[in-house]
Design brief:
Strand content of chain A: 35-45%
Largest sheet of chain A: 7 strands, antiparallel
Order of helices and strands of chain A: EEEEEHHHHEHEHEEEEEHEE
Structural class of chain B: alpha+beta
Number of strands of chain B: 24
Distance between the termini of chain B: 81 Å
Largest sheet of chain B: 8 strands, mixed
Oligomer: heterodimer
Largest interface: A-B, 64 and 43 residues
Structural class of chain A: alpha+beta
Radius of gyration of chain A: 20 Å
Shape of chain B: globular
Distance between the termini of chain A: 6 Å
Helix content of chain A: 10-25%
Number of strands of chain A: 14
Radius of gyration of chain B: 32 Å
Number of helices of chain A: 7
Number of helices of chain B: 27
Helix content of chain B: 40-55%
Chain lengths: 298, 842
């Protein structure tokens, strides 16, 4: 199996029209150690220097940091840097039928399916509905293996929906995305999750980065990359399988995983509350630079 | 069933058909405990009883005991309904109830620990994952929080109701921030005032020990290891439906009543923002819904929470009671699983059964529910605002069909419960005793490692005969609940506390959150504004009404123009001079709530401000305020009636000032209230002088007479200057004379005194901006040369006076702004979020 190495730099800068008296933040920007992913050289820097900083693990097992800046400030910069090594993941075809997985989840008792069942309900940003189930139904014919069906749905989302950053905002509900058929990776992920959960399947929201390749003949622009989101569906006996509806691909070694949860809200890269501050402008710069690719044959 | 005569003085009672009555059994005999009570009631006599009842009702109204109902027209501050006829529970039955309740609270507490810990209940299949992972009230950030067991369910409430056979069942649990124990206490105080002899002769158990236990437990929690022994009572604010109770309990327990923005997290610890600076907080007794408590980790759209609170709890730096996440316990679906959980967790059978409950997420339950809708109540599995129960027993077939479809669409979202008949209890309806359905809300708190039950309850009474609904939201009434004839060898009362620590003497207690200071400051300002306007209007009416004066007195429009323009043009002196317009304007200023700057508008501000500092205002003061508000709502039809109305209001203001002057401790709170009043009075007087004396008017004598009357200075003036009215001496008296308590100078000098005693000030401090402004205003007034001020220039104006008053008109509001910025500022919370893929992607 091959693997890939990346250097990631993610910088977020807030500028405020008035001084911020206090700023409380939660960040999910450090990579998660997974069987297919290791990382090194991780650094987090915050300017101004926070008075309080704590590194913890959240409910879903993701690394999370909390920090507080207590001195008045008009600008806040958070920079995360690390190197990650990602192994390609390959999945065998087949697996259980989707109805069998639904059945297994509803009577969940063993640790693995219990854990998975935490991801089969509506959550703050993902509502379930008959419309979503109906949308999914075209791909989920009776007895079809869950992964195959999900792959088909992934392809349909890619085909039938238009990538359009102008069409949605952070608060656009899934039903709106289903209606307008437009959005960004976060919307497609939420839609995908909503459709699978509406059938009774378990599905996670995954936040991370993807390597972007500049158009032929052009150089990579600094900070031109973005944070990315995709989904993970529970497909026993294979376990969790990551699918990227935005790019219509099974996630392998081109994605760097930061964190997963039920939806964006659980793992948003940066979330904060400021006291004061007036109006705010935020700029985000992400660089995912491939280091060197080592291929190994099995 | 036969009618029972001779119960109480001249009362008779006919219990309802086919339901269990709390007082009379099926054979028409009294149940245990009622006999003694009714005999004592008889002895009291009906005259005495109704006289006392009238007093109690008055007291409840004046104490401002209210329950706010969202969305109702008269929603804010609906008066509390108390039925004077208490609910009685015999000691023997109560002992059984008590032990059952304690078992239930223990079970729920263990369950909460488990669900936020190792989730044994899921692993063993004792609860379906839908009720945990699928529950929006299951707060993942609270998983694994180090919550001391005592505070997980520091206060728990259980609603009890009876079947038609009289069996007691649990209708619902209130585990998040249960309301009602403060109302129960208030009910007890009211009823014991009404029938103290009865309480003695029936040996009613007292409630105080229950609150003592709660206070002790919180005190121990605060002492134990946390940064500070300070306990605060966190309320969502005055708009909350049970805000009265929050203020009442905070005051009763001796805790500072705070809102989210009174607290701040620094260095991962919680602090209270006092005028004096930040003070550490060890325990937060909350009435805030748990998901609103921290916008950082819980609901990000909450603006009433404390950002960083969950982190502080996680670090063990503060304790929140009830424990964050306890709302999870309130799903009605839980009742269906409790019997098994009780056997697993406590190795016991559930002592008091829950009302039969079916969670529609289970196929067998769903099938049963769909077959039996005609005697079931449908509730949401995950309770939310605006969801109310559907009583399908009385529903039409069409409604039932609609519910059937609704449930089938999403079975896991619904819970069905047997519709209980509820028992009836005698309730005073006018002069008659009539049966009404009741529910008993009982309360538990922690003492050491066990729960104790409040020896009493808040009994909720349905409004109409036959109605099966008794919730506060639906406007239910309430009863005091007496536990009578305690069972023989009473178990050692877990509430009695043998040793009490000696209390250290203190003259503090003057802790005042800056938000409260802000409210008190504005309370002072609005109070003075209302008084000033009342004086002005009273004067206008007198002048309009005076006998023997033809037409409209010329000064009236000038004076009226002070209260919001429109009636007089100061340049041309032409204005609306006809009597009818003046009359209409005066009446509008008195009673039209839409009149800008009118009395009604001011008293509404006053009410809001005083409402948010209820915990800082003594009972007596509060009664005066309530009375003032009631009066201000009357609508006098004529000028003559208005005169009397204003006279009464002014007496009310005087009473309030007197109480503040004589009864309020000289804390910073008092100081801010005083500064507000002084500042407003200075602003008002300067405004009056500017409006009336800036330009020499042809009817100046009448003007001088009027302003002396408004300033209550006519007599002083006559004594000093028997010769007659002139501008200079009037100006001196009202502007510069420091001995006149209504002069501008007097207010400013007092303000200077208060400034020196503000937190953080000392004699040695250099003057800060507000002090500089004040100093400048004081010197300007003190040094003013009156003979120069009265000089009349071109166009009959008095340029020096105008200049001076213009300066004051800038400086006085400036002082207010600086004070606010320094001591009272509250910045708003905003959420920020970034870094998700909204940037262009391939």
């Amino acid at each position: 199996m091959s693997s890939a190495r990346y250097s990631v730099r993610h910088q977020t800068r807030y500028s405020y029209s008035d001084a911020v008296a206090n700023s409380y933040n939660r960040i999910h920007c450090q990579p998660r150690a997974c069987p297919w992913q290791s990382f090194s050289q991780a650094r987090l820097s915050v300017d101004p220097e926070p008075e309080f900083l704590a590194r913890q693990t959240d409910f879903f097992g993701n690394p999370v940091s909390f920090f507080t800046v207590q001195e008045p400030h008009r600008e806040l910069t958070v920079t995360v840097m690390f190197e990650a090594e990602v192994k390609a993941r390959a999945y065998s075809e087949g697996g259980e039928s989707w109805e069998a997985v639904v059945e297994r989840l509803s009577g969940a008792r063993d640790p693995e399916s219990l854990e998975a069942s935490g991801f089969r309900f509506a959550s703050g940003w993902v509502e379930l509905s008959p419309e979503l189930a109906q949308f999914a139904a075209a791909s989920f014919s009776p007895g079809r293996p869950v992964l195959e069906a999900a792959g088909d749905l992934r392809a349909r989302i890619h085909r039938e929906f238009t990538f359009d950053p102008e069409a949605t905002t952070i608060a656009t509900p899934v039903r709106e995305v289903l209606r307008t058929r437009r959005g960004v990776c976060q919307d497609f992920a939420h839609l995908f999750i909503g459709a699978l959960r509406s059938l009774g399947l378990a599905c996670r929201y995954v936040s991370g980065y993807i390597l972007t390749v500049p158009p032929p003949g052009q150089e990579r622009l600094q900070g031109a990359d973005a944070s990315h989101a995709w989904i993970s569906v529970w497909a026993p006996p294979l376990g969790w399988v990551d699918l990227d509806p935005t790019n219509n691909m099974i996630v392998s070694d081109q994605h760097v995983t930061l964190a997963w949860g039920r939806d964006f809200h659980d793992v948003s890269p940066m979330r904060g509350v400021v006291v004061g501050g007036g109006t705010q402008v935020v700029r985000v710069g992400v660089d995912v630079v491939p280091l060197s690719t080592r291929g190994t044959s099995e | 069933m036969s009618t029972l005569h001779g119960i109480g003085p001249g009362l008779s009672y006919r219990p309802g058909e086919s339901s269990y009555d709390e007082m009379v059994d099926a054979e028409g005999h009294l149940r245990p405990g009622w006999d003694t009570f009714l005999r004592a009631l008889e002895k009291l006599g009906s005259d005495q009883l109704s006289r006392r009842w009238e007093q109690v009702r008055q007291l409840i109204r004046e104490n401002g005991v209210t329950f706010n109902v969202y969305g109702a027209d008269d929603g804010m501050d609906r008066p509390w309904h108390l039925d004077p006829f208490p609910m009685l529970v015999g000691g023997a039955e109560w002992a059984r109830i008590e032990s059952g309740l304690r078992q239930r609270a223990r079970l729920l507490e263990l369950l909460m620990e488990d669900v936020y810990g190792n989730q044994h209940c899921l692993k063993e299949g004792l609860l379906p994952p839908d009720l945990v992972h699928g529950h929006p009230g299951y707060l993942r950030p609270c998983h694994g929080l180090p919550i001391p067991p005592e505070c997980r369910l520091l206060l728990h409430a259980v609603d009890l109701a009876r079947t038609s056979e009289g069996e007691l069942m649990v209708l619902r649990d209130r585990a998040e921030a249960p309301a009602g124990c403060g109302y129960a206490l208030e009910n007890r105080l009211a009823v014991s005032r009404m029938m103290p002899e009865l309480m003695r002769s029936t040996q009613v158990e007292k409630l105080a020990s229950f609150f003592g236990a709660m206070r002790d437990t919180l005190g121990e929690l605060a002492q134990r290891a946390f940064t500070s022994p300070r306990v605060v009572f966190l309320t969502p604010g005055p708009a909350n439906q049970t805000f009265f109770e929050h203020a009442y309990l905070a005051q009763y327990l001796g805790y500072t009543l705070v809102q989210g923005d009174d607290l701040t997290v620094r260095d991962n610890r919680v602090y209270l923002k006092l005028l004096e600076g930040l003070q550490p907080v060890g325990v937060i007794l909350r009435r805030l819904r748990d998901d609103f408590c921290d916008p950082l980790e819980l609901r990000s759209d909450s603006v009433i929470g404390v950002p960083g609170l969950v982190q502080a709890v996680r670090a063990g730096n503060v304790v929140v009671a009830n424990g964050l996440g306890s709302s999870w316990l309130e799903t009605p679906a839980l009742s269906a699983f409790l019997p098994r959980l009780c056997r697993e967790f406590l190795d016991q059978d559930l002592a008091i059964p829950s009302v039969p409950t079916w969670w529609c997420g289970e196929p067998e339950s769903l099938a049963y529910v769909l077959e039996n809708l005609d005697h079931l109540v449908i509730k949401r599995t995950f309770p939310g605002i605006g969801h109310s129960a559907a009583f399908l027993g009385e529903a039409k077939a069409k409604t039932r069909q609609a519910w059937r479809e609704e449930i089938l669409k999403n079975p896991t979202a619904y819970v069905a419960q047997e519709q209980l008949k509820l028992s009836t209890a005698p309730t005073l309806q006018g002069e008659l005793l009539e049966p009404r359905r009741i529910i008993m809300r009982t309360f538990l708190t922690r003492r050491g490692d066990d729960f104790v039950v409040m020896p009493g309850a808040l009994t909720l009474v349905s409004r109409e005969e036959g109605s099966l609904v008794a919730t506060l939201q639906r406007g239910a009434g309430s009863k005091d609940t007496w536990i009578v004839e305690p069972s023989g060898e009473a178990a050692p009362n877990p509430l009695s506390h043998p040793e009490r620590p000696i209390i250290e003497l203190s003259r503090g207690g003057g802790d005042i959150p800056s938000r409260s200071a802000d409210n008190l400051f504005w309370l002072g300002r609005y109070l003075e504004r209302a008084e000033g306007l009342s004086r002005l209007l009273r004067n206008c009416i007198t002048r309009l009404d005076e006998q023997g004066r033809p037409g409209t007195p010329l000064e009236t429009p000038v004076l009226l123009s002070l209260a919001g323009g429109g009636a007089h043009d100061p340049r041309t002196h032409r204005g609306v001079v006809d009597r009818a317009t003046c009359r209409a304007r005066i009446l509008a200023l008195i009673s039209d709530p839409r009149a800008d700057g009118g009395l009604r508008a001011i008293t509404e501000h006053l009410q809001r401000n005083s409402g948010s500092v209820r915990d800082r205002i003594s009972g007596e003061c509060w009664r005066v305020i309530t009375h003032l508000f009631e009066m201000s709502r009357r609508v006098p039809g004529t000028l003559r009636e208005s005169q009397g109305h204003l006279e009464e209001l002014l007496m009310g203001f005087a009473a309030f000032s007197g109480l503040i002057g004589e009864n309020m401790t000289r804390s910073h709170g008092w100081r801010f209230l005083e500064m507000g009043r002084r500042l407003e009075r200075a602003v008002g007087m300067a405004g009056l002088l500017r409006r009336t004396l800036s330009t020499e008017l042809p009817f100046e004598d009448a003007i001088l007479e009027a302003i002396l009357e408004i300033a209550d200075a006519t007599r002083t003036y006559r004594r000093r200057y028997p010769a007659g009215l002139q501008v200079a001496p009037v100006l001196d008296l009202l502007l510069a004379d420091e001995s006149n308590p209504r002069s501008v100078a007097y207010q400013l000098v007092l303000m200077q005194f208060h400034f020196q005693h503000l937190p953080g000030r000392s004699q040695l401090s250099l003057p800060n901006p507000e002090e500089r402004l004040l100093l400048s205003a004081v010197s300007r007034v003190k040094l003013a040369d009156i003979s120069e001020l009265v000089l009349v220039g071109e166009t009959r104006r008095r340029p020096h006076l105008v200049g001076l008053l213009r300066h004051l008109g800038r400086e006085l509001p400036g002082i207010s702004d600086h004070l606010a910025r320094k001591y009272l500022t509250h910045l708003t919370l905003k959420s920020q979020s970034a870094g998700f893929g909204r940037e262009a992607l391939p």
